[in-house]
Amino acid sequence: MDITPVFVTKSYSPPLEEYQRYVKQILTTCQFTNNGPLLLELEGKLRAFLGVDNLQFVTNGTVALQLALRGLEITEGEIITTPFTYVATTSAILWERCTPVYVDIDPQTLCLDPNKVEAAITPRTRAILAVHVFGIPCDVDALADIGQRYGLPVIYDAAHAFGCRYKGRSLLSFGDVSTCSFHATKLFHTIEGGCVICRDAEVHQRVDLVKRFGHTGDEHFCLGINAKASEFQAAMGLCNLPHVPEIIADRRRSVELYDSLLRDRFTRPTIPAGTEYNYSYYPVLFPSEQALLTAKAALEAQNIHFRRYFYPSLNTLPYLPTRQECPISEDVAVRIACLPLYYGISEIIVKQIGDMICPCIHI
Ligand SMILES: Cc1ncc(COP(=O)(O)O)c(C=O)c1O
Questions:
Q1: Which CATH architecture group holds 243-362?
Q2: Which fold has domain 16-241?
Q3: pLDDT of 225 over the 80 cut
Q4: Where in the chain is the domain with CATH 3.90.1150.10?
Q5: Distance between CA atoms of 114 and 79, rounded to whole angstroms?
Q6: Are 38 and 28 in contact (CB under 8 A)?
Q7: Contact yes or no for 163/188 (Cβ under 8 A)
Q8: Is the pLDDT of residue 3 over 80?
Q9: Cβ of residue 166 lying under 6 Å from some atom of ligand 1
Q10: Is the CB of 135 under 6 A from ligand 1?
Q11: Which long-range contacts (CB under 8 A, 24 or more apart) does 197-201 make?
Q12: Is the C-beta atom of 89 inside 6 A of ligand 1?
């Protein structure tokens, strides 16, 4: 029997007519890229949605991180960061020829533990790069305080945090620079895409220059790269943005169903008070790696695929120059998985997953 596979995520597809209307406009004007009208419209709408002044829409969330470092003129030195995130956070640091210095995570929120940051600061430290992992807010007050006392910019990789609000404002509005991914698998997406949000207008201008080859007309100012997003990506964003409240509400219903089935049985990360969450992921901590692997195999037999997210703990990557210990992250990374969660996932599937993984907690 052919069973339709269920993956950890599924891209949101806007109504076809909505996208077609934009495609027709693009093909008529023949402006496909280079700060086109749809890109400018999307940037304006994202600024309003997020309540930020300086936002640039770029090709993806990885290059957004690289631009954040370039915008802050960080081209060498150590970046204090978290080992519990997607590999792109670390690869952006390494790609920019900086050294990641891993600080362990808070076992409740799974975000960088601010209590351990100061001990890792050295004369070579250039910035703190934290991640609102799964959209869970970092301790933004403590990190801002450390950043101020040591003169270090705080960058947030907010790839998972679109639609989250914390302390009454968008979570993407915290930090000196905050970046997001709008990859097709994200809650709000532009097929591929991302953004850079800068507190400081000068940093914003530098990012703008670097993302378009470092020149304006014939005048060349600095080394640049091509991080310009196209009109087709902007069009997808314009279609999807109005649907964000409905996407979050739908995900919330699925999360509440998972909660009703699993809450008393599995440990879950803690979302701090004051968060309006986006329900972007459903991470569960198994009692052991063996229990996780048993659940994974059982689900895969039914063509249902969860994801070991995030695994491995990035301080153990084989291509790092030195091995740094992060026992909490290493322990969490082997026991955590994100269960399938996306707009339109059926109750039947959620219940099936719940029923299948519950027996695995006793392994
Ligand atoms: C935490 C984090 N940072 C960065 C990225 C990279 O974003 P992109 O895939 O848009 O390059 C991702 C992608 O999933 C991510 O999860």
A1: Alpha-Beta Complex (3.90)
A2: Aspartate Aminotransferase; domain 2 (3.40.640)
A3: yes
A4: 243-362
A5: 14
A6: no
A7: yes
A8: no
A9: no
A10: no
A11: 197/50, 197/52, 197/54, 197/55, 197/172, 197/173, 198/54, 198/68, 198/71, 199/54, 199/175, 200/54, 200/176, 201/53, 201/54
A12: yes
Cα separation, 229 vs 154, whole angstroms = 25
Question: How confident is the model over 70-81, as a mean pLDDT?
Answer: 98
Q: Is the CB of 189 under 6 A from ligand 1?
A: no
> 178, 188, 206, 196: which is closest to 74 by C-alpha?
206
Per the listing, tokens 């969490």 go with: 332
Mutation test residue for ligand 1: of 181, 190, 280, 307, the one with most atoms within 8 Å of CB: 181
**Residue type present at position 206:** R
Angle between helices 244-262 and 347-357 (to 10 degrees): 30
Best mutation site among 8, 96, 183 for ligand 1, i.e. most ligand atoms within 8 A of its Cβ?
Answer: 183
- Residue 88 Cβ contacting ligand 1 at under 6 Å: yes
Predicted pLDDT of residue 360: 82
Residue 56 near ligand 1, beta carbon < 6 Å = no
Q: Is the pLDDT of residue 46 over 70?
A: yes
CA of 180 to the centre of ligand 1 (A): 8
CA 258 to chain centre: 22
Among 8, 58, 59, 62, name the best residue to mutate to test ligand 1's pocket (greatest count of ligand atoms within 8 A of Cβ): 62
Q: Work out which ligand 1 atom sits closest to the CA atom of 131.
A: 1
CATH 3.40.640.10 boundaries in the chain = 16-241
For residue 363, name the pLDDT band (cuts at 50, 70, 90). low
Q: How confident is the model at residue 210 (pLDDT cuts 50, 70, 90)?
A: very high
Cβ atoms of 66 and 313 closer than 8 Å: no
**pLDDT exceeds cutoff 90 at 192:** yes
**H helices present in 306-346, as ranges:** 327-335
E strands, 167-214, in order:
169-170, 177-181, 194-198
**What is the DSSP annotation of 140-180?**
HHHHHHHHHHHT--EEEE-TT-TT-EETTEEGGG-SSEEEE
